[in-house]
Amino acid sequence: MEFPYAEPFKIKSVENIKRSTIAQRKQWIQEAHYNLFNLKSDQVFIDLLTDSGTGAMSDNQWAEIMKGDEAYAGSRSFELLKANVQRITGYKYLIPTHQGRAAENVLFSAMVNAGDVIPGNSHFDTTKGHIEFRKAKAIDCTIDEASDTSKFHPFKGNVDLNKLEKVFKTYPKEKIPMVIMTVTCNTAGGQPVSMKNIQETSELCRRYGIPLFFDGARFAENAYFIKKREDAYKHKTIKEIVREMFSYGDGMTMSAKKDGLVNMGGFIATNDVAIYNKATVFAILFEGFITYGGMSGRDMGALAIGLDEATEFDYLESRVEQVHYLGRKLMSADVPVQQPIGGHAIYLDANKFVPTIPREQYRAQALAVELYIVGGIRGVEIGTILADRNPETGENRYPDLELVRLAIPRRTYTNNHMDYVAAVIEHVYHTRKEAKTGYEIIYEAPVLRHFTVKLRKI
């Protein structure tokens, strides 16, 4: 007999969340200039803004917090983290940073110059921001299937090898400092990359002499999908799959606030001693000494344990299954979402959800605001506002997809919360024809505008 699924953990501590009324939320979001980032956490009922640093740590992680060695140089906590990163990823050299964008800042300071191009699979916002800040260019080489939310493809995060080779043939080698492969691919809808595609991308990069770096924020979830969807890996452990994945690259950046299962932290890891030595100069300049780099000893200890826990199948199955539980409920109600469901979030297709709102009025943002007003759910727009402006023309960039991401924090909410989220979304979907107008921008920053943008309802 097959019994119902049960999570492989029990709850030891709880945190109260506050309820509010629609009238209150209308006032709060107006005061926040219709930017969900500007809301206070007490004004949110179900917070799906991000899965970055918002999860629950385990008892073993909290125990390591108490044992943290806060020595400025050469702490025991650093040595523990270094040993675990080496064992899990296979990369010899480690530079801790305070979070993922800090790792990008350090690495790109060492490797990216004005006029460079950095191809990859749908670079995330901070990645593209750091590239363009340096007057370089990010080139998206994701497969075309990723742009069709209704089409099933098991690995929509894959790199299109023809697109990538075209970049290699168009630009001189010295203008391509690296290729960035994001696993899983967040901007494409939390979609995984296959081991076959990782291997083929690596072979192409080596043929042209271009380093391959991973954005490994959700590397464990990517390994889970490889195990579930590639027959050759169904009997492999997650840790075995992870070691093979990273063996095809030259290094990685990591926002440890995702698959590191911690609230703060990140790192750079590589086997290239020349890149390591160059990056340490910027690590000391921007972050701190190379054996703490912006992290406290206790946080490094918690991360060392978290990397081990995140690469166990039972944890990953419970994490991904909860995301898919919500996804199945929405698909059964015909709500348009990116399919197949990814590993960390549900992505609502705003182009199909609210096509009555003009794109220049930021339809995905309008949908995200409506979910908050109706149900107190905070998601985030992955669309035109996030895509920012073309740095050369100043015009809005309109991506193929206008998405609202609902990122599920790890080990935080119950399936009753997912039922509530589904009910709110279904209600908004059934009343979608009432949506006619969206928003206009009244203030925006020159880079990464979506974090601080101010909007006015039209």
Q: β content, as a range?
A: 5-15%
Output the helix-strand order: HEHHEHEHEHEHEHHEEHHHEHHEEHEHEE
The tally of structural domains comes to: 2
Please list the strands of the largest sheet in the order they lie side by side. 2-8-7-6-5
CATH superfamily assignment of the largest domain?
A: Type I PLP-dependent aspartate aminotransferase-like (Major domain)
Number of helices: 16
Overall, the morphology is globular
Helix content: 25-40%
The assigned CATH architecture of the largest domain is: 3-Layer(aba) Sandwich
Head-to-tail CA distance between termini: 56 Å
Compute the CA-based radius of gyration. 21 Å
Note the main sheet. Answer: 5 strands, mixed
